[in-house]
């Protein structure tokens, strides 16, 4: 394993975990479907950046969460969703729009 990271999309309840593996290139094909649409060759730059990142960053193995941890994570996420919904429901309604004005 080369490294890993976690991120959360703004406003979303889900956490995403990305694991990066460093592979050894044994052979590179001369032709492939994406070759026609590739505008610039950045393979060497990408390889350098990833290698440099791997050398500089402290990496650690991430264990799979236990069933209890996964359940607590889900419950916390659901609690946050429900808390947000309650706050939104307690807000006073705004002025009526043209679509919902009485006739």
UniProtKB/TrEMBL annotation:
Residues 30-90 form the Transposase IS110-like N-terminal domain. GO terms for molecular function: DNA binding; transposase activity. Transmembrane segments: none annotated. Pfam families: DEDD_Tnp_IS110. GO terms for biological process: DNA transposition. This is Transposase. It comes from Rhizobium azibense.
